[in-house]
Write a structure and sequence with these properties.
Mean pLDDT: 92
Strand order of the largest sheet: 3-2-1-4-5
Helix content: 40-55%
Low-confidence stretches: none
Shape: globular
Number of helices: 9
Strand content: 15-25%
Structural class: alpha/beta
CATH superfamily of the largest domain: Ribonuclease H-like superfamily/Ribonuclease H
């Protein structure tokens, strides 16, 4: 875990700051809705302050969240989704594992072999080991990049097999609608890094869970969040 988060020169307690940032990244809420929810609890803070907290503390929290350890048995599902920013098309490239856990994502202005290669290179460096199998849709750029970066990894290219990656775009799309788009590629990249890290922590990895297991998972996730935010329970 990286160095602890500092709240110096902030007049609000760390618990309030961490709660506001959690609301913003965990649920499909606008900044004004977060402001309203805090007001209902007697906390008077503007939505602009919430935005500054999200920008400053969100990445710091995300870096401190515990990641799922990589395994050579993992199956990587890769896909890309188009995002329009200021009238220009960009593509958000995403890699998830067999449980839907987001391994990496990167926003790029291209949808070609060079862009696919950059995603695979980042993924290999971040995970430290290649997956057992790579599953993509029929975009030819994936096959070309895989032959250069991960030639020993089995590659399956079939649209019907890649529902795991395609479904991983749905939470992002819901946030995109609530936020009415993004203002810049840089802001989008910063946002998704925190958004996916928070979702990885709180979203159950399997759909068939008992109520008790789901409750325990959420308790552990909240404890992990409080530890990352450097606050007491």
């Amino acid at each position: 875990m990286s160095k602890s988060v500092s709240y110096k020169r902030h007049r609000f307690p760390p618990e309030i700051i961490a709660h506001a940032v959690w609301l913003y990244f965990r649920f499909p809420l606008s900044l004004r809705l977060v402001e309203e929810m805090l007001l209902e609890r007697g906390i008077l803070v503007s939505y602009e302050t919430v935005r500054r907290w999200a920008l400053k503390f969100g990445p710091a929290y995300a870096r401190r969240l515990r990641r799922k350890p990589p395994s050579r048995r993992d199956i990587g599902h890769l896909d890309e989704v188009v995002v329009t920013i200021s009238g220009q098309k960009h593509w958000l490239w995403r890699a998830v594992d067999q449980d839907g856990y987001v391994l990496d994502e990167i926003l790029q202005s291209r949808r070609d072999t060079k862009a696919a290669k950059r995603l695979l290179t980042r993924l290999l460096k971040k995970q430290g080991c290649p997956p057992r199998r790579m599953i993509t849709d029929k975009l030819g750029s994936y096959a070309a990049a895989q032959r250069q970066v991960m030639p020993a990894v089995e590659h399956r290219s079939h649209k019907g097999l890649n529902n795991r990656a395609e479904n991983s775009h749905l939470p992002f799309r819901r946030r995109e609608r609530v936020m009415q788009g993004f203002r810049s590629p840089r802001y989008l990249q910063r946002f998704v890094c925190v958004f996916s890290a928070v979702r990885n922590l709180f979203a159950p990895t399997r759909s068939r869970r008992s109520a008790a297991a789901t409750h325990l998972h959420r308790l552990n996730a909240m404890a992990g969040w409080e530890a990352a935010a450097n606050i007491s329970a």
